[in-house]
Amino acid sequence: MSAPIAAGVGAPYARLLSVASYVPSRVVDNAEMCTFIDSSDEWIQQRTGIAERRWVGEGETVETMALAAARTAVERAGIDPADIGAVIVSTVTYFHQTPSLAAKLAYELGTNGAAFDISAACAGFCYGLAQAESLVRSGAAKYAVVIGVEELSRFTDIHDRSTAFLFADGAGAAVVGPSETNGIGPVVWGSDGSQADAINQTSEWSEAMQGGTQPYIAMDGRAVFKWASGFIADATKKVLEVAQLSPEELDVFIPHQANNRITDAMLRHLKLPENVVVARTIKQFGNNSAASVPMAMDQLLSTGQAKSGQTALLIGFGAGLVYAGQVVTLP
Length: 331
Hints:
About 30% of the residues lie in helices and about 25% in strands. The strands form four sheets. It has a five-stranded mixed sheet, with helices on both faces. Strands 8-14-13-11-12 form a five-stranded mixed sheet, sandwiched between helices. It is α/β, with parallel strands linked by helices. Helix 3 (about 60-75) crosses helix 4 (about 100-110) and helix 7 runs parallel beside helix 8 (about 260-270). Helix 4 (about 100-110) links the parallel strand 4 and strand 5 (about 115-120). It folds into two domains: about 15-180, Thiolase/Chalcone synthase (Peroxisomal Thiolase, Chain A, domain 1), CATH 3.40.47; about 190-330, Thiolase/Chalcone synthase (Peroxisomal Thiolase, Chain A, domain 1). InterPro entries: ACP_syn_III_C (IPR013747), ACP_syn_III_N (IPR013751), FabH (IPR004655), Thiolase-like (IPR016039). This is Beta-ketoacyl-[acyl-carrier-protein] synthase III. It is an enzyme of class 2 (transferase). GO terms for molecular function: 3-oxoacyl-[acyl-carrier-protein] synthase activity; beta-ketoacyl-acyl-carrier-protein synthase III activity.
């Protein structure tokens, strides 16, 4: 008979200790966007809710944005960086295959803990949050930093009338740590690879390396809208169910900032009370993919629209097609 193997022992529960974001410096309003495509401010706002978006300016990159957001989150959490056991970065716009962005950020943050990148598009932050919660509870990490960061402006065909006005840049980060009471509910997540072509890149990077054109984001807007307003609305309802909460017990709803019409469809499906605060940061920030949820959370807290200790439902969804969501107590 083999010798028994000890199991890891961690915290009884985990919670969000802090959240922070980095908003790029360049403001691109719809008037400027319409110099690239044949559209109008009225049409863009009516179809998406976007009035302006943020793109990186001089000296701003995926790495600088992620590090700024993560450093602020660590400072707000008041923890020793050396105690960070894991750094998880979600991004689809870091164009170095190796080493991971997470490993570089871990060093800059002052930890030699585990570090890895994940590719889960707009659901990435919620994917990372689920992993961080498990790491803290298992004892694999005392604290974990989850970062969502994108430089989508670099990956967007600004002359494509169907996508150019949607995508933007930014970073959001959160620190997850031990708690005596539960602050992060069970994750509801999954994928539908049968619709992988609904959001993808136009070509492989190898083609660009051989003198071809740079790949860009391509999207079947109708397919994504149908999936998000139907299937994802059902999944969001399940997030509440597994957390054993009713809509009346929710204070804040923070969906991925993809499109205001999708958010409206979710609200109708969930039948949330009118007093629930709903994130609508898409108006000034656009679609920030993996950075969307933490950026929205930080903005709601920093502006006083949401408060520490309130109960919030998070849901992310995007290319894959993938989705993930959980209920959390706001830091």
